Here is the input.
Amino acid sequence: MRPVVLEARGIVKRFGALSALGGVSFELRAGEVHALCGENGAGKSTLIKLLAGVHPHGSYEGEIRIDGRPAAFASTRDAERAGIAIIHQELALFPEMSVGENLFMGAWPQRRGRIDWDRVYSQAAGTLADCGIALDPATRVGDLGVGHRQLVEIARAVARGPRVLVLDEPTAALARHEIGTLLALVRRQRDRGVACVFISHKLDEVFAVADRITVLRDGVAQGTLEAAATDPGEIIRRMVGRRIEDYYPRRQAEPGRTLLAVRGLSVVPPRAGGVRLQDLSFEVRAGEVLGIGGLMGAGRSELLMHLLGLWGSRRAGTVQVDGADLVVRGPREALARGLALVTEDRKRYGLVAEQGVPFNVSLSSLRALRRGPFVDRDAEVLCARAAIDDLRIKVQDLEQPVGTLSGGNQQKVVLGKVLLTRPKVLLLDEPTRGIDVGAKLEVYELVNRLTAAGQAIVLVSSELGELMGMADRIVMLCDGRIGGVFDRAGATQERLLAAAMGRLGYAA
Here is the structure.
């Protein structure tokens, strides 16, 4: 058995009256990938902040040991000296500097008392190649996409030769091919004897890379399991206390009248080179969930944005909402006609992060909440409280900035804002992306409640399991066209993927 590099014993951490960790013990061996799983608020981030010295020795009960000896980190610098490198979700790169400069910031290769720039870039090139990252070290970081920045952040940690590498949701902003690069990088570090902690909500990634898995729930460890001896169902059960059979709890409602009908829709993009929507036809009835899938660039988000009047120019076809033709020039008109959209990027398009729940929940309903030229503050607060109660939003107080909430609670605020408009048709674009299993289940239960009340829902998702589990019918897009249409009984992962790749004819 490999030696234990790092150990936490009986860790208790409180924030005032709130207990974030209730006696957690955890050990990490050399040359293993140890996954930490749990819902938002389970205590994962608190635990790794203790390991990183963010919460210093003396602010918690229990003991941290390195190589069997007690460690008392007073700061993050102490943890770094002990060989612990942590990649947080919030990136800490310098956008105006090059990739090479970022890799060696604070640890410059020097020659005769000066920075040796030739060595900076030659060593950076070697580090990037070693990590399997195809980037020019002279590239300005500000010119990179979020996915490449995440990979640079990880390469910077690797360049310092850590003994312990902690990755907190490292794939959240990565494309599929970048995820493969990252997982290969993690395996490479493990094979070199580095002890890795891997935190992710995506259980397929956890099982692809982890040797052992520790589950946290409400600040308490629910056990450590060998990855090869367990399965996602058991991990989910320990995380949320439910069975895997309950993971997609779709309860079909009796379908009613057609609330959204799209016929022969063709749309050209606002700029050359974008996806073109061509001859799309589908309908959604009251009480029904229509799933829309497809590979990246297939036109899923563009379709929803067009329905709201936010993307592209219509060249052919019609859209009807509850039997009436819909030609909108913007979101305000779409909202008035009964369409509402929960966007894929909630932080960019769905929320004002610095403001509290009342401000955010009322954003799409300001006209209804007016008193003369002003917003009725009392009515706004009542709506916010109703959303908090109805959607079980965890917030310390009404004016807590929503940007400080967990991903799942941020998504609930966006849903509360949209539901306040009382839409007939709700368009959900990747509504469970970046939220934990428990929050996903709450979103799914909300879908059931809405369809039971007679609303129609269009669900865009890149997760085939989610489409198969929650949609009554599924439309797969391929390069802006319909690649296949499936009912619930006829949908399999193989058929859905074949349709997304254009290898399946249009199937009713």
In short: Residues 131 and 486 are 41 Å apart (CA to CA). The longest strand covers residues 4-15.
